[in-house]
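To illustrate the input format used throughout this study, we show a single complete record. The first block contains the structure-token representation of the backbone; no residue identities are included at this stage. The design step must infer an amino acid for every position from geometry alone.
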């Protein structure tokens, strides 16, 4: 589904991604872990060109993101993204947050969008919040809305950047539960997180990033039981 070839990204003199190679197959759940500043967010943001890479190639569903003929906005619609800070539109109700993009992009009529939004809200137990504004919701509720809002465009892959890091501890579980259900339904997912329990249970592969490189890349059983890279061992000794 996604092939990353020799991906590089520098900010000025700072080389943040150093020739990353990675292949993500349909249905995979790839969890990315690593210390702060290791390039995890930059990697995720390069996948949908929120950051412009300085080298290499990204092939998404057979099309290079850098091909002049590629309609990058169309490709982006097939990748949902969820951020640490929810990023809901504060001045719009939950329902409007959900229907805005698909209606503007003419993917759905207003009434179709409302129907789809209701189904998704029901799925995450938040249908009664359809007319609420984001600030009237808890962080966990806002993040569940952000996830189903991304699903309104029926993406082929979902990218999550530390989706539970800004939440109070008692709200982490409800968000991880929604992500777990999405994984069980077969969604292709790339998830940057510090939730090692989630990585163990849900990941098909876990990547360890440090210094702009992927230093380890294994199924979770091996990743946690048999970490080879010394820096990964040190990292795990701190977080587990
Ligand atoms: P992580 O998500 O693993 O914490 P990031 O990808 O956010 O790491 O950052 C990796 C490095 O890139 C850091 O050194 C950070 O300071 C730098 N960086 C990230 N975004 C920018 C930016 N927009 N401008 C300059 N430097 C940046
Ligand atoms: Mg980050």
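Output of the design step:
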């Amino acid at each position: 589904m996604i092939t990353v070839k020799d991906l590089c990204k520098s900010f000025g003199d700072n080389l943040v991604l150093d020739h990353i190679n990675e292949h993500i197959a349909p249905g995979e759940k790839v969890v990315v872990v690593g210390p702060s500043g290791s390039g995890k967010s930059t990697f995720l943001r390069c996948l949908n060109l929120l950051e412009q890479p300085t080298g290499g190639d990204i092939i998404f569903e057979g099309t290079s993101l850098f091909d002049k003929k590629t309609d990058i906005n169309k490709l982006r619609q097939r990748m949902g993204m969820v951020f640490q800070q929810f990023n809901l539109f504060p001045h719009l109700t939950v329902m409007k947050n959900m229907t805005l993009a698909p209606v503007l992009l003419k993917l759905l009529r207003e009434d179709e969008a409302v129907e789809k939004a209701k189904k998704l809200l029901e799925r995450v137990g938040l249908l009664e919040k359809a007319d609420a504004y984001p600030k009237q919701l808890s962080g966990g509720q806002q993040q569940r809305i952000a996830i189903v809002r991304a699903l309104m465009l029926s993406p082929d892959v979902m990218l999550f950047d530390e989706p539970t890091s800004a939440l109070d501890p008692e709200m982490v579980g409800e968000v991880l539960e929604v992500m777990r259900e999405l994984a069980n339904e077969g969604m292709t997912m790339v998830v940057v997180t510090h939730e090692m329990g989630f990585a163990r249970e849900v990941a098909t592969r876990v990547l360890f990033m440090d210094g702009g490189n992927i230093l380890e890349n294994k199924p979770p059983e091996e990743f946690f039981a048999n970490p080879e890279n010394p820096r990964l061992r040190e990292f795990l000794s701190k977080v587990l």
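Structural context for interpreting the output: The longest strand covers residues 14-24. The beta strands are 2-11, 14-24, 29-33, 55-60, 63-64, 79-82, 157-161, 188-192, 205-210, 213-218.
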